Amino acid sequence: MEKWRCIPCDYIYDPAEGDTEGGIEPGVSFEDLPDDWVCPICGVGKDEFEKVS
């Protein structure tokens, strides 16, 4: 699964780790995150993320 980077703060969403503090279990792809999920560091939405190559 691909990692995604928050453009404003450089947080990396890694599907292998999920976002346990945000209630996202490991194994959830970025595309499958809820539409209202936000960056756990700076609070921006999914539209502020870019795929990490």
SSE sequence, one letter per element: EEE
End-to-end distance: 11 Å
How is the quaternary structure best described?
A: single chain
Rg estimate, integer Å: 10 Å
Helix percent reads under 10%
**What summary fits the major beta sheet?**
3 strands, antiparallel
Number of helices: 0
Q: What order do the strands of the largest sheet run in, or round the barrel if closed?
A: 2-1-3
Per DSSP, what share of the residues sits in E-state strands of 2 or more residues?
15-25%
Question: How many β-strands, per DSSP?
Answer: 3
Shape: globular
Question: Which structural class fits the helix and strand makeup?
Answer: mainly beta
Poorly predicted runs of 5 or more residues:
none
Mean pLDDT: 97
